[in-house]
Structures are given as structure tokens and as C-alpha cells.
From TrEMBL:
Organism: Symbiodinium natans
UniProt keyword list: Membrane, Transmembrane, Transmembrane helix
Name the UniProt record assigns to this protein: Uncharacterized protein
Composition skew (Basic and acidic residues), residue ranges: 350-361
Record-annotated membrane-spanning stretches: 83-102
Feature: compositional bias, Pro residues: 301-311
Region (Disordered): 294-361
Length: 361
């Protein structure tokens, strides 16, 4: 059965084994996705035409089989899921191509290098930097006013983060209970483990404590951003690719298929947000700067350093000539702050004459 539908002989096999056995044998063919086996057993799928399609157009047969048989409620559910599965990415590619063509038509040669390219506005950049510096000072002092809507947005983003992870666990469960696709299950489990290690390396409760701290402040903290970044940049894109490949093969349930599509939507949103905050806003560079300067915001000592006191009447011995004067011992400075260097003693040059033409220094 290497894609050649002529090798199927339904009448001949039916005469030997019976129609039910023939139908079950054909529907259990390893090349038939599980989502189509229910239609096959209900005799809602033309196997001869399906395998002929597999021979001529192997990449469109699943969609043809799911979208061209509206005689069964299960098939109608498959039609909606199948068209959504097919045309969401296809529509995205179409919109991208139309955008590229419009950009080239409107911008001409400049559209190749980027539509709307203009010289940088130094005044605008300076004002943005000044505004960012002022906001940073307000954040450190706790005087930055945050609205109730800002906290709601933060809560919604955290809820979507948890929902995306739970949907990925549901996909892992579907792969495992199928009993046939252990490869998909192993890949999904590996992605989940890598994500957990990246997110919970500072402790299982760190994610929730950092979220509560961010919610109290009204804006995400650096710790919360580091944890969320691992989920959006590691788990979301890998799970998206795996689920898109395995969606037709791991379950014969329309509900499970639609839940996989919902999981892919959440993954797309996470990848888009990660690309925006990491590439456009440069979050990685900011976090790297914070990691390289951990003592930048360290508090200064509240009291001046105390120097050792000597009892009155004690005179220090005189040092031989040429040696620098004694200095008072300076206590060890706080780590991260270097004391100013002590002034060097003056260099004295002595010239002695031993005779004409024999001067020595």
C-alpha cells in the first residue's frame, strides 16, 4: 500500500474475509490519520479516492477528506476545525505577501530596505531618554502612579501564561493516552521539562512571589520578566511547531483538536509578545546590564567610617628620611566601591660631585 490505490481490492478481500473485517483493516492503515478513522468506520470516507489522492497530492488529502463530507455531525465539526487549521496560517502568509507588494508599490526601491525609513530624530530620542530617566527615578522612589487598568493587564498576561502552559500539558496528556505517538509525547515532555527548569531554577514559589510583587508595584519587576522571558522564548515557539505538525495524528476527538488549535493561538501570542519586548524594546540588553552591575543600586553606608583613635601623649616614632609619612589605616570599603589612591611622595633627586666630568645622580 505504498500510496497506490489500485493495490486495494475491496471486492476480492471482501469475498475472503467479510465486509466488516475489510473495512476495519483498511481503516487501520498506518497512513490514515486517527481523525479520519471514525469517518472511515462509519463509511463516510471514500478510501479509494483518499489513497489515490495520497499518491497524487500527499499534502492536501487530509484537508480534502475532512472538508468534503458534510453528511455527518462529526464530519461537520471536522470541517470547521480543518478549515481553521488550513487557512489561519495560509491567510497569514497571504497577508504578508500582500503587505510586501503594497510596500514595494508605495515605497518603490526604498521598500526593499524598509518602508518609511527616515533620518533619526535626535531631539525625539533625547526627550524619550529624559522621560525614561524620570520614570526610572519615580519607580525607585515608589512615587510612580499606576492605574487599576495596568494591574488588570498584568493579571491577564499572567493568566495567559498559565493557560498556555496548562494547554501544553493537555497536549502531552493527549499524546500519551493515544498510546501510539510516544515520539510526540517525548518531545512535548522535553519542552515542558526545559521550561520548568528555566522558570523554576530559583525556587518553585519564585514565579508567584515575583508576580505578587509586580502586582503590588503595578509594573513587572526584573525577576518576573526573566522568568516570563524563558516561557515566551523557549516553550511557546517549540510547542507551536510540534503541535502544528502533530495536530492531525494524535486524537480522533474534535474537542481535543480544537484545544490544540487554542494552544497554538496562545503560543502565537506569546511568541509575538516575546519578539516585541526582546527585539523591539531591547529587554535582553537591559537585563544583561542589570546582571553585570548587581551593586549599582547598593545603598551607601548611613554613617561615616570610624578611624582608629590613639591615646593622647603617644608620639609615633620618626621615620628615616626618604620614606613617606605614616598614614592612618582606612577601613575596608564596601564591595564594589574603590577608595581613591593615596598621593605618592615627592621624588627627591640628589646630585653629588666627585670631580670634573664625573657627576653622579
Amino acid at each position: 500500500m505504498d500510496g497506490d490505490c489500485d493495490s486495494y481490492d475491496p471486492l476480492g478481500v471482501a469475498n475472503m474475509t467479510g465486509r466488516a473485517t475489510l473495512l476495519q483493516t483498511l481503516c487501520e492503515d498506518f497512513r490514515l490519520p486517527e481523525m479520519l478513522r471514525g469517518l472511515c468506520l462509519k463509511q463516510k470516507l471514500d478510501l479509494i479516492q483518499y489513497f489515490r489522492c495520497r499518491r497524487d497530492q500527499p499534502f492536501m488529502c487530509q484537508m480534502w477528506a475532512m472538508s468534503c463530507d458534510p453528511h455527518d455531525p462529526l464530519a461537520r465539526a471536522y470541517i470547521m476545525a480543518g478549515w481553521a487549521y488550513l487557512y489561519i496560517p495560509t491567510g497569514a502568509v497571504f497577508v504578508f505577501c500582500v503587505g510586501v507588494l503594497l510596500r514595494g508599490a508605495l515605497c518603490g526601491k526604498q521598500g526593499v530596505c524598509g518602508c518609511g525609513t527616515i533620518p533619526s530624530d535626535r531631539a525625539l530620542q533625547r526627550s524619550v531618554c529624559e522621560r525614561a530617566s524620570a520614570l526610572l527615578v519615580q519607580m525607585k522612589e515608589g512615587n510612580l502612579d499606576r492605574t487599576y487598568m495596568d494591574r488588570i493587564k498584568l493579571d491577564v498576561e499572567f493568566a495567559m501564561l498559565l493557560a498556555d502552559f496548562l494547554l501544553d500539558l493537555n497536549c502531552l496528556y493527549q499524546y500519551a493516552v493515544s498510546g501510539k505517538h510516544w515520539g510526540f509525547a517525548a518531545l512535548q515532555a522535553t519542552i515542558v521539562v526545559i521550561t520548568l527548569v528555566a522558570e523554576l531554577r530559583n525556587g518553585p514559589a519564585k514565579l508567584f512571589t515575583s508576580f505578587l510583587e509586580s502586582h503590588a508595584l503595578g509594573f513587572p519587576t526584573d525577576t518576573y520578566l526573566r522568568i516570563v522571558k524563558s516561557e515566551k522564548s523557549i516553550e511557546a515557539p517549540l510547542s507551536l511547531l510540534l503541535q502544528y505538525v502533530a495536530a492531525f495524528h494524535f486524537s480522533d476527538s474534535p474537542e481535543a483538536f480544537l484545544s490544540t488549535c487554542v494552544s497554538m493561538v496562545f503560543s502565537v501570542l506569546a511568541v509575538t509578545k516575546a519578539a516585541y519586548i526582546q527585539l523591539h524594546l531591547g529587554l535582553n540588553e537591559l537585563l544583561d546590564v542589570e546582571d553585570s552591575n548587581p551593586l549599582e543600586d547598593a545603598p551607601l553606608p548611613s554613617q561615616p567610617p570610624s578611624f582608629p583613635q590613639f591615646p593622647p601623649g603617644i608620639d609615633l616614632p620618626q621615620l628615616p628620611p626618604g620614606l613617606p609619612p605614616a598614614t592612618t589605616a582606612v577601613p575596608k570599603q564596601q564591595q564594589g566601591f574603590s577608595p581613591p589612591p593615596a598621593p605618592l611622595p615627592p621624588i627627591q633627586v640628589e646630585v653629588r660631585r666627585y670631580g670634573k666630568g664625573h657627576d653622579r645622580e
